[in-house]
Amino acid sequence: MKYELYYWPEIQGRGEYVRLALEEAGAAYVDVARGPRGTAAMMKMMDAHGGTPPFAPPFLKAGKLVIGQTANILLYLGSRHGLAPKSEAGKLWVHQLQLTIADFVLEIHDTHHPLGPSLYYEDARREAKKRSDEFWKERVPKYLGYFEQLADDNGGAYVTGRRLTYVDLSLFQIVDGLRYAFPRRMKAFESGIPGLVDLRNRVAERPNIKTYLASERRIAFNEQGIFRRYKELDG
Amino acid sequence: MKYELYYWPEIQGRGEYVRLALEEAGAAYVDVARGPRGTAAMMKMMDAHGGTPPFAPPFLKAGKLVIGQTANILLYLGSRHGLAPKSEAGKLWVHQLQLTIADFVLEIHDTHHPLGPSLYYEDARREAKKRSDEFWKERVPKYLGYFEQLADDNGGAYVTGRRLTYVDLSLFQIVDGLRYAFPRRMKAFESGIPGLVDLRNRVAERPNIKTYLASERRIAFNEQGIFRRYKELDG
Fold first, then answer.
1. Do A92 and B67 touch (CB under 8 A)?
2. pTM for this one?
3. What are the chain A neighbours of B85 within 8 Å (beta carbons)?
């Protein structure tokens, strides 16, 4: 079965967490909005009445199922493609970690959209600077400290132990994204998270991920996505 | 088995979404931080090394499992207690809706904490006012319009059709919370969401919920929680 991924074509964004999982799994998929049908097909599915219309992208069509919410898509894909444990307890734990990452992603986004997603960054620069300062002072240490500790305590190559899960793929994305968006601040911070940096490298070297990163499907970070390089926010 | 719920004792907060589900289900549970062990027991579990230490409350101890993230706890409880469909597709759909509610809850919280959770409201009043204006102009119509449409399209008593799920309990909480936090704005807005208001009433009348709401376990909304009444933000 070929999956259909629906997400904004011009950014990595939340869709990227799904793309990384699909690529690692070697799963056949179409990135619909990047193809001839464009975003129109995506908007049409969100406007559907009856059934399970998603609130927002990303969403995945898997046969008859239409699954929305990034972490929910990964929950679905995880067990099917060996990217999560098979036990219920294991699945819940990995999902919990992904939801924590999702909360962090929202806070990353809010460094440049502190007054909400409907205003432009340019209309809230002052607030964005204040938010970014707080973010680096309090929130990055809290979130990445938590994952660094897990990596340390679990003693394996991956954050939950010896086997890769979709959470590790997402943490790769977090490290690369923060390096892109806040190069100075991240450079200073990284020395405190050697386990996560190591993990990032290990994920990047995995054959399917390596191939993906070198392909056209992996577009560059840019200033429309979640990770945006605004120099004035970089301390 | 008696569940153990761990959450900040003095607020409804995110814990309330779990309490409503436990109460509706008639499940035996202890609200640990409200008892003699207090929050110390909770902090100890978060500081654990190895195992599955939660990043933040709420979390639920269910036998040997420790489950964190509000929507993840509800995912776990939902199928066990008849608060979610049994089919995989049904579970994923309900979970997706709950994750959408969780995103909305975060935005509700950010109306009074636009610069991040570590500053006090008093230090970001100006920004909070701007954020609240945008929130009511763009975000409330988008989120509640989505759920109102679902209720309408599904034609049943509940948002996913004929049977109650934990999503309906959470929507009850959203309506009551917004009424508390933004009485003027919500009063003006409500006429546009008759289905959700109806749903709220139907949930409130369910025997276990009715009993819970009249009990001591349902504490009042206050200005430490997610829904806070700050007059200056109420238009």
1. yes
2. 0.97
3. none
